[in-house]
Amino acid sequence: MAFETVNGILKKYEGNEAHVIIPDGITGIGNYAFYGASQLKTIAIPASVREMGDNVFYDCESLEEVILPDSLFYLGSAVFSRCASLRKVIFPDSLTVLPKITFFQCESLQSVRLSAKLEKISRAAFEQCHSLKEIVLPESLKILDENVFDDCISLETVNLPSSLEMIGDNAFFGCSSLKELVLPPSLKSIGKGAFETRGKLKLTVPDSIAIHSKMLDNNWNMYWNFGVNRRYNGKNEDNYQLHDSRILNTDLKQWKPAARTVLAMNYLETFERRIDFYDTWIAENAETLLETVVKERRCNALNQAMELCLISPDQLEPYLAKITDREEKAKLLSMNRKNRQKNDLSEIDLDDLF
Question: For residue 255, which of 229, 228, 236 has the smallest C-alpha distance?
């Protein structure tokens, strides 16, 4: 095999084999060592290797699987960038940082075993990994840098460990298949567009964490490719496809009108205790809420609003005809009568009874 080595460092591979075995005794692999080796499918890396430079396997379009040795203590940036056929990589527990753009445009990547000691995943490490559906983040992780999972359109499941302190800008941008995120109380910083997934997302948020509209709507690139047609559709309200999301610490004034309605409905549907600013907004915008709730058949939200007396019988009356579900309609009529009776009793002067 054609290896160019200098003082134990593999500087350049000049061959065209599909299966390559790096000789024992090699302690490092230099920048761009296998750059553009289009025939390379598998690589055996010996336990003597301690360092790998930048772009080592950049554009190795046939490379399918890599197991990195436990001896590895340094990894450069973009090591596997544009490896279009790469499906699986196993990292040793010796690494504490996954460098920037490690897997940029690895469209076939499906399985990654990360270091159990990993503390940081750097910028755009998994950007445009279109086949990645699930990833397990280690409990040691503290930082998810900007654009880490940018445009990972198949990503469905991500655990956010209890050690996590930072989620960077656009970390989950375009992750339209992502269904749910549970934020840990350890979070100290969340960047712009971090949850701008362009899909329906359930967020579970501790009371201590404030959620701002900018976390779901950054509009940092109006022409960014995403979704079915891979083009931005210009509908800013699409950014608020939150469902069953418990967001208890926010400022509704920061959000667009449609987003306020979504947040209010989610509050009603996930109700655990009364939140004054939600109650106030619902009471002041009852008709706006009713229009959306009835149109989308969010009966649980409507029932809860009636139970909390946030919507009056008179406000509900014009919308009853639009409710086609007989059972729900009967329930609402019953609640409406009870609320009307409560209102009538509250208006009676007790002195008139004696």
Answer: 236
Q: Quick one: pLDDT at residue 51?
A: 97
CA distances from 70 to 29, 45, 81 (A): 15, 10, 22
**Residue in 104, 119, 110, 109 with CA at minimum distance from that of residue 150:** 104
Count helices and strands in the chain by DSSP H and E runs: 6, 19
DSSP 119-133: -EE-TTTTTT-TT--
The pLDDT, as a whole number, for residue 32 is: 97
Q: Which fold has domain 3-259?
A: 3.80.10
Residue 100: burial class (beta carbons within 10 Å; 0-12, 13-18, 19+): buried
Specify whether the CB–CB gap between 40 and 15 falls below 8 A: no
| Domain layout of the chain by residue ranges | 3-259, 260-348
Task: Report strand pairing: 9-13 vs 3-6.
Answer: antiparallel
Q: Which of 26-30, 77-81, 243-247 has the lowest mean pLDDT?
A: 243-247
Are 126 and 151 in contact, with CB atoms under 8 Å apart?
A: no
pLDDT per position as a tens digit, 221-271: 444 444 455 554 555 445 567 889 989 999 999 898 888 999 999 999 999
Tell me the DSSP string of 49-68: --EE-TTTTTT-TT--EEE-
Per DSSP, helices labelled H in the chain are 257-269, 276-284, 286-295, 299-307, 313-316, 326-346
> In angstroms, rounded to a whole number, what is the distance separating the alpha carbons of residues 76 and 31?
8
